Amino acid sequence: MEEPQIINTGTSIATPNVVFIMADYGHDPTETAVPWAAFKAAGYHVGFATENGKVPRCDKKMVEGVTQKLLGAKKEVVATYKKMQQSEEVLHPHAWSAPDFSLDPYDLVVLPGGHEKGVRQVIQSPIVHKLMLDYFPKTKKPGRKVVAAVCHGVMVLSESKDANGRSVIHDCVTTALPTQFEQTAYWGTRVFLGDYYKTFGHGSENVQESVTKALASPSQFKSTLNPGPFVVEDKNYNYISARYPGDAELLAEETIKLFESFNRIV
């Protein structure tokens, strides 16, 4: 009988080292706190990084007041977010703009989304783009680096382009915030909230359009209008993407399964 063997394509990852790349303010609390809680529960080492090491804060409209009750995070997610905000890793984030900061020590890079305009700090950052240009190629299988992105977080990748203008996800399948979701939220709240749901302002491209333009073919963009949990996992890269807050839990679950698969017995 053939002896079972452990697939080994690199250094063993007994305890994955995770970093959330964040703007100072504006990320969605569900897309941030739900994966954070899942990775902590799985025993992962979790850290955060903002531009200059400032404590990140998620979009207050999603966790406070009338906007939270009508449009924002669920009550249990708000509680998880508040717990996250008191964690050592959030209170003492790294600075992704520091000259000596590198993503190399991390097994997983998480890019949460958020439609508040503050997230442009990370989406448009040449520093973050350079970090992703260096890191993302290392997610190519059989490598063991992983990237998980949701909603506007996918734009960090679509905007990270090499000297030839090719995005790091040019050859990947991906999802992101669907145009129909974005337009429904925008037009449904415009009278009360203005262009709040348009991260780059009224008349700007939808997230789906921006991401699709960065792909080799429009067919690489995968989506569904079913509000139930949905994620997309690329076959050639350890890259998992999701559309919106409703997918956050599944995104975390599938990411954990991916790490478990690295050391599976066959």
From TrEMBL:
InterPro entries per record: Class_I_gatase-like, ThiJ-like
Gene3D superfamilies hit by this protein: 3.40.50.880
Pfam families the UniProt entry points to: ThiJ_like
Identification of the protein by name: DJ-1/PfpI domain-containing protein
Organism: Xylaria multiplex
